[in-house]
Amino acid sequence: MAAPATRKYGGLSASQRQSSRRTRLVEAGLDVLGARGLSNMTMTAVCARAGLTERYFYESFRSLDELLVAMFDAFSVPTHEAIDAALKQAPADLFERCRAAAGALIDSLTDDPRKARAYVEAISSTPLHERRAATMRAYAEVLAEQMRLLSGLEADHYRAPLRLITTMLVGGLAEAVSEWLNGMLKLSKDEVADEASRLCVAAAEALSRSKTTSTAS
Amino acid sequence: MAAPATRKYGGLSASQRQSSRRTRLVEAGLDVLGARGLSNMTMTAVCARAGLTERYFYESFRSLDELLVAMFDAFSVPTHEAIDAALKQAPADLFERCRAAAGALIDSLTDDPRKARAYVEAISSTPLHERRAATMRAYAEVLAEQMRLLSGLEADHYRAPLRLITTMLVGGLAEAVSEWLNGMLKLSKDEVADEASRLCVAAAEALSRSKTTSTAS
DNA sequence: TCATATTGACAGGATGGTCTGTCAGATACT
DNA sequence: AGTATCTGACAGACCATCCTGTCAATATGA
Questions:
Q1: Which domains does chain A have, with CATH numbers?
Q2: Closest-CA residue to B165 (of B212, B206, B123, B104)
Q3: Tell me: the pLDDT tens digits for A74-83?
Q4: How crowded is residue A72: how many other Cβ atoms within 10 Å of its Cβ?
Q5: Closest CA to B23 of B42, B65, B51, B45
Q6: A77, exposed or middle or buried, with CB in 10 Å at 0-12, 13-18, 19+?
Q7: How far, in Å, CA of B50 to CA of A33, rounded?
Q8: What is the pLDDT of residues B150-201, one digit of tens each?
């Protein structure tokens, strides 16, 4: 009985239309999450906001959690790219590189007010919490890499402590940004990035000092 | 019509019985949260676990969120007390005091396996997230106090940066403990506490160095 | 032993959200 | 224009949970 059909519509192919709907749902999700909070973010509300029927929800996502993950990626991926780009341009100095990365992170997170709200609210979702943990681990690894390269922490016995320290620094920055977004920290963007980067440098120095017995290679 | 009645039952007064039920609900909440996760923690499940009818749930709590907050307090209060006690005994040295506090925190969190699970899961709840934020602020303030006293950071212009740094350190420790509980960090309890405390000392030193121009009092 | 408080069990309505199905109207290909 | 596809609107079944009410069984004090 002929091909399973796939016709142009509104000048768009079937897959274009589908991915456009998906995008609309993700955007609507950000709107709803920002405006009404996570507990009021239901499929019904998201679909209404997107101007789509619930039927189309299942076309792109199997559950709200899947949408949540897609929303997270929608702003965590660009953020990650911004950080990568900033790092590529920064000079080979630990403080400068931390500054560049932290600045890129904060800028990326604050360029869309919805992101800020989502970033804070998002933690209150179990699947997102896991996603967030994975992202944090990745950032911690990037930071560890920088420290290894720029502070001579190559030795193997640094691995575990370095991992702990970078986890703390990255987690700490996340917490600080969260507090800053809530208006609890009376500092400018730049000051936040500055202080955080200084702490990274101090941490690297402390680490290289603490095991000084076997580092004079 | 006599008095509104209040009779002993099982050797307990009315208020004793009520508070006992409340305790049972909190305990059951910890069990359910630990065993089945936050999304499966419903009133029905908690009541079943507690061996109480849903009617009694409303006697002590108006909503699941209220129970969640009570559960949080049930282990955050003892933890806070443990930290206070540890700080009282510790010598007047920043590293030692950080070590004592961090050790007390970790010990308190790991003495009951349910706490650990709850600590990780708990973040995925909006009301708890706020509670957590308040607790973190309190811990950050305690740490800031220690730094001020023991590292000569009394000057007023330290306030904002110090607050940022302590927020990062406390938030970082929380993240690290969370990762450690997940088995992502191959370190012993003591090593975690040691490294974290060392980072606190390094942070204090960096802070006092960075504004050295006006500190030579 | 009797009366009354207290309890646990259960029933069931109310609510809110998830899904699936139908259908008329709009759009595009021939 | 005619036909087939695609779309959005709606209806409503289904389900889980919340929450309240009733009631018999039990424990207590008099």
A1: 14-62 (1.10.10.60), 65-210 (1.10.357)
A2: B206
A3: 989 999 999 9
A4: 20
A5: B51
A6: exposed
A7: 34
A8: 988 877 767 899 999 999 999 999 999 999 999 999 999 999 999 999 999 9
Residue B102 CB-density burial (10 A; 0-12 exposed, 13-18 middle, 19+ buried): buried
pTM over 0.85: yes
The beta-carbon neighbor of A167 closest among B179, B206, B210 is: B179
Residue B211 has a pLDDT of 63
CA gap B38, B188 in Å, rounded? 28
Averaged over successive runs of 10 residues, the pLDDT of chain B (217 residues) comes to: 62 90 95 89 95 94 94 93 97 97 95 85 82 94 95 79 97 95 94 97 91 44
- Asked if B87 reaches chain A (Cβ–Cβ under 8 Å), the answer is no
Cα B192 to Cα A157, B45, B180, distances in angstroms:
15, 36, 8
B80, B72 Cβ separation under 8 angstroms: no
Contact B177, B192 (CB under 8 A): yes
Count A/B contacts: CB-CB distance under 8 Å: 133
| Interface contact B196-A168, CB threshold 8 A | yes
